[in-house]
Amino acid sequence: MFLQNLVQKAQQFIDPAVLPGPLGNSSNGRPSKAQLFRHQFRLPDSQSPLYEITAELTLPTKKSGNDAKSPSKNWDKSNWDRDRGTHHVGQLHLSEQFLCFSTVQTSFVSTASASASAGFTGRTHGTGPAGNGFTLPLCAVRRVERLHTQSYVFALSITTWNGYDAGTETKPGAPAPPKLTIQLEGSRQQCERFCDGLKRGLRQGIKEVENMRTVAQDCYSEYFLYDEFDAVPATEKADGTARAPPDTGLGTVFKYPGNSRKLRDRSKMRLWHEYLKEHGRNTTLVRQPDFHRLIRVGLPNLLRGEIWELTSGSFYLRLQKPKLYQDTLDKFQGQGSLAIDEIEKDLNRSLPEYAGFQSEEGIGRLRRVLTAYSWTNEEVGYCQAMNIVVAALLIYLSESQAFYVLSILCDRLLPGYYSTTMYGTLLDQRVFESLVEKTMPIIWDHLVKNDVQLSVVSLPWFLSLYINSMPLIFAFRVLDVFFLEGPKVLFQIGLAILRINGEELLDATDDGTFISVLKSYFARLGESAHPKSENPKHRAITNFQALMVVAFKEFDGITQHTISEQRSKHKSAVLESIESFAKRTSIRNLGPESKKLSTNDLGFLYDRFYVVLYERQQRMEMIQAEIDRKAKLAKQRASEIVTGLPTNTPEMGRLALGASQTQMDYDAFREFLAGVAKWAVTDSPSSPMKDFSGGNYFTNTLRNRPINTSPWGNGPEPAEHEFLQRLFKKWDIDGNGALSLQNVVYGLAPIKGNRDIMSSISYFFELYDDDGDGKVDREGVLRISEALLFLSRRGLTGSVSHGPEDIDKVLPSKDEQFLGAVSSFIRRCFEYAEPDKTEVDNAADGVDLLDLGEKDETGHAETDDQSEHPKSPSPSSAGESSILARPSTNTFGQTKSRVVSANAALDPASPVHITLPTFRMLVLADETLESFFDSGFANSFHLADAPLPSNIVTSPAYLGLSHAPPTSGSGLSIPGPIGPTPVGIASGGVVGPGKGLRGVLDNIVTDGMRVAAEVRRRMDEAQRELDRGASTRGTEDDEDDDGEEQAVDLLEGAEANAGATPAKTPAKPSMLLDTPVVGGPRIESNGKARAGSDVEKSTMFER
Amino acid sequence: MADSSAPKPSSSVKLVLLGEAAVGKSSLVLRFVNDDFQPNKEPTIGAAFLTQKCQLPTRTIKFEIWDTAGQERFASLAPMYYRNAQAALVVYDITKESSLVKAKHWVAELQRQASPGIVIALVGNKLDLCEDDEEAAEEESSGASATAAADDEEGEESEAAAESTENNDEGNNSTARKVSLKEAKSYADEENLLFFETSAKSGHNVGEVFTAIANAIPETSLKGRNAGAAAGAGTQAALTGANENSRVNLNAASGDGGPKEGCAC
Ligand SMILES: Nc1nc2c(ncn2[C@@H]2O[C@H](COP(=O)(O)OP(=O)(O)OP(=O)(O)O)[C@@H](O)[C@H]2O)c(=O)[nH]1
Ligand SMILES: [Mg+2]
């Protein structure tokens, strides 16, 4: 009775229009149309809705016998259905590999309204998410005929694959799946288009026929039907080999839970036998109202696995990648992982009460399935509760089947439940709470008043799908419905549990009582719900049956749509709380060195670190999506394009969703620094490049790593400088080319934390002491100087007691002062340098210095320079201020040719070095440098206490740099001793890395400009591409539009019909629950009916 | 129950168990509440809730025990459970070095985030696994202290330290014990924690842990919510009490033996 009501009610409510709100929009985390499509028909992610059309499906009725299968010659629309068979009006959809039909009027084309796409997520009631219909892999189609009928009618007859011999009059073969007759309703053009698409798909499908055969062999239905119907003895296959039943889980060996007599397993099998015989099996199954009813009353043991596979869609995944399971196991054979360690811990702790999991066999299967999945989804890996769920699955499914079901569970049905942050679990708990609040305000208020945490009881329900809360037999019945109707079932059951126990719960004032009330309820699920009733039928109703009724009747308003809506409402709060927790924990666990930084600073670094990773990932995704989009556009019309990026994309990398990245590569590091230090911002942000000659210095470095052309988001564009590379290398203590948060913290801690000039000097020195021998050679000295200028080029606020805010106001004289200091530093370095005793080989020296040189081009640039700016004044005159005035001209290269000094240190033939003590002395000798190392350097990193303004000035505060007129070159006076870089001499015409301080600065500018130009160019290109794409799409849309309009018209027409359908079914006895009325097997509808033998028709496809 | 006639003041204490997966949290609770041990206990999903009374000479403490899941990713659920907790049992497995590192993380988390004044006990479980080499361990102190010392130098929270010692351990796995008594004890002293080594399997020291916690709960913190609940909720409280008792007593009655001297329940 209950079920009957349910079904009736269900059919009244198939009304997509009741669903408000846009669902097709993925920017708010909601599914795209393609996703909705896949969810409705449980298709793999590779499928997208290509074509759809309103259609009428006609199936032969049971009673109609053989003649019903032969459409008569003068078939026409008006007399067809009435006479022969059940008909369903609905939408026919075509994807790359599937033909799907559903009586639920959903539409996934680009122009469909959101509610039309989300229709199936509405009230599903007894009919399940997909309504009546089918999900037919194209490889399972054997033959498609176009029925030639009267003028405007366009009808197809589809013969599907049958694994059996057809049999003969005397030796009946196994039943053939029903022949599907589908009448397309649309304009001639629409119909043709659909059929063309279908033909293409069918041809492709031929390749997968073999796959399908093997995959279907694992289905019990193949064995089940063959067993009874085929003429060949059941124990033998056609080729004479023994026919063994497929693996239907541990249950065959260790017994299925529950008493099969009490579960009426035999009667259920008989009903299913009839259903499968009539409506097809595995690939060819057609969903009719009975299908849903049979599932609601609980699946029989041997078929449970197969139906789970079909309703969850894991079957189609297996069909696509039948070898994935075994291949994964083979590929990772013998490898270890964190997940595997965690799995091992729990193997003996999974359904220990079931005998199969006390055995090596059961444990072995569990281990393999969990391990294989952990490899295919390393982000999830293994989460406790998965062991329990998989153990339960393995009772009914083979290892490989369980593997695919697990994939569907984790990836689709329970998104984020088992992820590393478990955000899905937390989110659904929040959703559940809000549903309780809405539907049972009294209970909710009571919980709040007594400070009872609902999620303490409900979280395990969801996380382990009730498997460790309810006795197994009941948990499996919940699963039966869950796979068919989706995640909303978990909510409905949960709410029903609370509703049923409402009174007792209102008496509970603490968590303990609350929990024990529910525990005892679960223990009584098998008992009568009305033990005292006079009516034996009432008495026979168990608590569990009552629970199902309350869940699906009283809470039928809880739909997938309700859930999605609630999820998006609570999502941000949940994610934020996870993130703040993660931040706290992560900061606390950074290790002792991190204590040198304040908690504020650590928090700041944490944020900055992950923001950079997150934003970069976003950008990558967008670029990737753009590329994919183009590729797709080129290939086909895909509705996904219209609806935008696949759902999760906008949030990929968000920490609470299980950030996939926790390491920063060099570019990310640059971006990171650009947000904390002014000097790390490039001097020439995205402005077009006019002059390429200056970029030489960098072309080399650029070439050495993959050129990253992605824009830098909204943040400032980072600079590129050798100093950054050195810093990165120093911080990368593990030497894996990437920095973790801890690396960054440990890298910064000595700079920001020590605040002691001596350690800061040695930190810097070590940056340049490549081989760690306590010496820095001539080359290194030059590089140190370059770095000092690089760091100071925007002014150093730290050295003076200015606040950090007045970046712009830094007095130029300070910078001049700094330049002067650096100049004299270099001079003194060479004065005090010690000859390098160990190394006397000139050649080696030369080679040493070549590493960054860019020979030819640099040579040219240098000659140009020389011709323009012939000579520098005498080396001894340290005219600091004039350096500033001559930005783009001064290079070491130009001075190198002069023989300058008698200082042996400058003699290229005699390598020299300075040691740390020398370096220290030189620094301390200069007030400006001293101040730099004392605080300036540390202060140039702006953390929490003095953050950089977000829109940092990107043009250098140090104005002289790029704008000063070249004419002021007269005052140019780089200190002489720097000049004669040995490189130039040693390798004639080659300008080494010591090309010059100013050269470097200039190059930074030009190089940055060049990169910027490149970025601009690519962006323009992308934009053009986008425009082009949009216009192409535009035309396609137009084309669709008229088709669509008609479809909508038809759809509206069809709705009236849909309303009429229930009239046909309500009489169906729904009391399977109480009295399994089972008719004997019927012997019609076997493969012999040669439909359309006398109908004029043309075969569209046959194999 | 022994003194159920005596009108001793009774108050409830919220206690939370934290620690790495499979260190034996649920087993400790099971031992304390039911005096039972199950070798293949299912992992805790989310958290489990149980209660048990503990009789002290002057008062009765009813523990409301929140047993949490240990796997790392469940950590974000923990605040939900340690909220308002007055006591915490941070458990590690003395045969597993990494579990102590995790325990230290939890201690730090509690010290910063939980209610101020929370009583924390550090518990090294699975002592039974080390019984054989226990004598050895006693004299071994020379060998063990080397490891411990090394650890101390590298800092308490350094994961690197943990890993390196773990590697060391692989060499000499002749002894099951991987965390020396000394090391854990000195850490506990430093952080002002109660400290025990227990075995949920044998029951060794399990009762003592809970008694010690009960004794350590300051009298003052026993008021507030619990007193209110006991006094204010009238019939409901009574009903609740009855339920609890019947459930607990049923189980406890069977094997109330040696291990729980201090805790007369
Ligand atoms: N030998 C021995 N084994 C123990 C002891 N305590 C627990 N175990 C075993 O360790 C495993 C894990 O115990 P649990 O109590 O489930 O551990 P848990 O800390 O609750 O684990 P999670 O719930 O996953 O966090 C089980 O197989 C127990 O039998 C002990 O004192 N001695
Ligand atoms: Mg546990």
TrEMBL record, chain A:
EF-hand domain ranges (all copies): 719-754
Gene3D superfamilies referenced in this protein's UniProt entry, alphabetically: EF-hand (1.10.238.10), putative rabgap domain of human tbc1 domain family member 14 like domains (1.10.8.270), Ypt/Rab-GAP domain of gyp1p, domain 1 (1.10.10.750), Ypt/Rab-GAP domain of gyp1p, domain 3 (1.10.472.80)
Biased composition (Acidic residues): 1036-1047
Pfam families per record: RabGAP-TBC (PF00566)
InterPro entries (UniProt xref): EF-hand-dom_pair, EF_hand_dom, Rab-GAP-TBC_dom, Rab-GAP_TBC_sf, Rab_GAP_TBC_domain
Annotated segments matching region Disordered: 61-82, 857-890, 1019-1103
Listed name of the protein: Uncharacterized protein
Native source organism of the sequence: Acrodontium crateriforme
Automatic annotation (TrEMBL), chain B:
Database matches in NCBIfam families: small_GTP
Annotated organism of origin: Acrodontium crateriforme
SUPFAM superfamilies named in the record: P-loop containing nucleoside triphosphate hydrolases
Single GO molecular function: GTP binding
Organism lineage: Eukaryota, Fungi, Dikarya, Ascomycota, Pezizomycotina
InterPro entries (UniProt xref): P-loop_NTPase, Small_GTP-bd, Small_GTPase
Coiled coil segments of this chain: none
Acidic residues: bias regions: 132-141, 150-160
Name the UniProt record assigns to this protein: Uncharacterized protein
PROSITE patterns: RAB, RAS, RHO
Disordered, as annotated region: 132-178
Entries under Gene3D superfamilies matching the protein: P-loop containing nucleotide triphosphate hydrolases
Keyword terms, alphabetized: Nucleotide-binding
